[in-house]
Amino acid sequence: MKNLKNLAKKVFAFSIVLLTLFVIPFNNSFADTFYKNEINVKINKDGSADVESIMDFEPSKGTEYYIPIENLGKSEILNYDVSEIIEGKEVPYETLKTWNVKQSREQKAKKAGVVKTKNGYELCFGFGEYQRKTFVLRYRVTNFVKLLKDSDMVYWQFVNKGLNSAPQEVKITISKAEGKFDNSNSKIWAFGNKGKIEFLDGKIVFNSLTGLSSSNYVTILTQINKGEFTSGETINKDFSYYQDLAFKGSDYKKPDTKNKLFKNIMIFVVTPIIVFGAIITILFLRKKKGYSKGDFKGEYYRDIPEKEWWKLSYILENAGFDGNEAIFRAYFLKWIQAKRLIPITEEKGRIFKKEVLALKINEDAPKQFDNKIEEKFYSMVVGASQGDRILQENEFSKYLEDEFKQHRFEELSEELDNLSIDYARKNDFFEKKESGEWTEKYNDRGNEFVARLIKYYNYLKDFSLLSEREISEIKVWKELLIYATLYDVADAVEEQLSKLSPELLNNIDVDLNSFHTGVVYSDVFTNNFVDAYSSNVSNYSDGDGEYSSIGGGGDSFGGGDGGGTR
Prior knowledge:
By secondary structure, this protein is α+β, with helices and mostly antiparallel strands. Strands 5-4-9-2-1-12-15-14 form an eight-stranded mixed β-sheet, with no helix packed on it. A five-stranded mixed β-sheet has the order 6-7-8-3-23, with no helix packed on it. Strands 13-16-11-10-17 form a five-stranded mixed β-sheet, with helices on one face. It has helices spanning 2-22, 26-29, 105-108, 239-247, 260-289, 313-318, 324-337, 372-384, 395-399, 403-426, 444-461, 468-472, 477-486, 490-497, 502-507, 512-537, and strands at residues 33-43, 49-58, 65-70, 77-86, 89-92, 94-95, 111-117, 120-125, 133-141, 146-147, 152-159, 170-176, 186-191, 195-200, 203-208, 218-224, 233-234, 341-348, 354-361, 390-392, 430-432, 438-442, 564-565. The chain folds into three domains: 29-250 and 549-565, Immunoglobulin-like (Sandwich), CATH 2.60.40; 253-289; 291-538. The chain is built from 16 helices and 23 strands.
């Protein structure tokens, strides 16, 4: 009986422990959920803007919500207040003159305040209970409009990159207190995510098309005719200066309006100077973020840096190599080597026939993929080949005319970058802020890995310096050839291999003809794929409104990096 009582006590105690473990922490263990962010901006005649940000948000951790706003120029944030919508009515929060970040969640509940930082502001409020609520933030931005030499401008980041919970849906509406916006007085572009920007009912309206991730942001650039606003921040620059900054790294292209003589001057005189200056600038900036191609001359690393090479797009691009394009190129080579894609030639044209390269989809090949991204990319290749399962040169161009397929390509590119950034974080390659948030600046461990990538590039680029004995001792030919394609130095490797005897090539299990064919076809079809996307979205740069660009929008005003619960 005594043993039975002891057993009952142990069972009861164990049950209490289970309840403690599985019930109590649940409130803090789930991730925050940001359902929707609707931002309404009214620009006043004096160039200031009244901003209303409506947040449908469910916190699960921390004591407050904060939004960094930096890069302000001569702008200031005034009249900040917060309210909560309860049963259809707005209930205002108490606005404090000073905000104490260190207070408890209960002390901050239903209060709001501003923290001044060395770079700008942090707009803060205490959300109280861990429940889904709708918050309304309002404030005024002075000098929101920038008065340039040739036109006026709004260039503002409305949703930050690096939010610890990015919104699933974003809508931004920009209106004028007097008059309207349309394509007779303005041009508009959007950056940082998959969305659409357009003129609607005298307003500029942006809508996201998919949920944002922590690497996304929302930046809007607007060129406005002179005379629409009476004041703002005066900047002694033309609009083209900011347009170039915004378009850098974007899908947008500036329209070609220059005459032929000017083109020739640019091509033969100015362009070399600009290119040289750009190269120097890029190299300098990359030094700040880590090593880049061209470093470690004469130094070599002889082992495969990472077997899962498809996780390296961001790291490769940051080091001066091709990014996503390199991964696409390597996938084509991989599929050709595995005979999943079979290189062939076809005749094209009714009267003047010419041979074009083509890839035949091998339906009998195993349908095994290393990850979902590879599977999605392969499905796009199959889709572009249409019903005959033969992908010809330039068939991607027709395939990517479809807007939905363009978005699939954008998603694919973004997933590759996110995969690469996650890989860097999991391997502790990036530094962290004091708050614990990741930066994208390499620490010593990250710099060491990038150095290995570059030294392995040097090894493949200088492959002609290897002796036959060194080549015969290589055990990882499959991965080596993939990396030669990633780095775009396959020609150097192939040239050296062509000097070897057939017996040695057979011993090291390298079919030089197949490799050459694979390299040629992977280059051609990757270029077709990327160029087809660029040509199909380039017409969106006229400023009349269309789809946003995932990249670009750099050096904007407002916004910042990070934010969310803390």
